[in-house]
Amino acid sequence: MNTSNISHVLRRPCGKAQPTKTVKMIDSSSPQEEPLFAARSRCWLVLALALGMICASLSGCTSADSKQQKAQAAGPHTVSVAVAKVEKQDMPVYLVGLGSVTAFYTANIKSRIDGQIMRVNFQEGQIVKEGDLLILIDPRPYQVQLEQMQAQLFKDQATLRDARLNLDRYTTLIPSGSIAQQQVDTQKSLADQLDGQVRTDQAQIDNAKLQLIYCNITAPFTGRVGLRQVDPGNIVHAADTNPMLILTQLQPIAVIFTLPEDQLPTVSLHMKNSTLLVEAYSRDNQTKLATGKLQTIDNQIDQTTGTAKLKAVFDNKDNQLWPNQFVNANLLLETRKNSTVLPTAAILRGPQGTFVYLVKSDKTVEARAVTVSIAQGNNTAIASGLNPGDTVVTDGQDKLQTGSKIEFRNSGPTQGTSAPVTPGSGTPAS
Predict the structure, then answer these.
(1) What is the residue extent of each domain of the chain?
(2) pTM of the entire structure?
């Protein structure tokens, strides 16, 4: 095999030429190595063609995907939202204040005499009526005192009768001169003194009878008995500081709550026209406990808080209110008839004021400016901007703009204010 040494010169990227190693060239005239060389060349050619086809295929797929993504981005984007309908209904206006329940009457029952408790006639938590016997204190010492006073009265009455008889005799002897006038006057004074003693005895008898009455401790009004502090056999004194029991009247019961002083003129004006209702809600403002009537406004304003106290009375037939219980008092000021009402969640605020997203018939939205009349809890009444029957977006507004395409997250437009209006912290806007 003939070979020839050929020296090739390669250029690097920097442009400098360097000699490479001497490569042996195969003479094509050699009959032994020609088939091997041709086979290798064909393999490399097939491999190059296959790689080219794969690259072309990948380039075509990437181009098609890119075109599809651009087409989707250029097309309209659908936003999933929740919607509700605008309604025409009566809108109650509430003023909300924090208050506490106060028993209409509270009595700390103590003993007015000294003695031993003989009987306790109530159970803790029992409802007792006015005049019911609660506690019996041993009456025997006071019965003995009464009998002693009655005996003393009987004795003094006898002495008084004798003095009066002698006075009558002395008086008949005056015309005959048989007795001196001074002796008659002395007898008259003695009779008057004995008369005074008899009256004192009678007063002492009345006092002894009163002590006997104090032995029977009765309920001053109808109410609920609390936890008792004494048991039968205990000795009680009139000077004791702790009560034997506490009696509270639960029916009716009062709620005292506060409102800002700026709202008092409006409340006073409405009180002159009608009786205002007050609804008591639980601490979390979720459960309605009772409904009562506003009774009065306090005669002064607390300068430290700028609020005034108001008192409402509740029948409390189901005993939902308890003394010292914390409640939210919602004063129903008025009811605005035929208001345009929509969910408060639909109201948005922007640089131009309040607005909502109105749903159009082609399932696109439009930003519509509205004027809020009153915001009350979950509902808001508007003065202008919408009509009853319109559909507004209540959730998902952050992804919307005028002309956005939407789809209903719920089954469709619902009655946004079908539930009763729940009093909230909202106040009239006008």
Answers:
(1) 3-59, 80-90+338-415, 95-104+247-335, 110-242
(2) 0.63
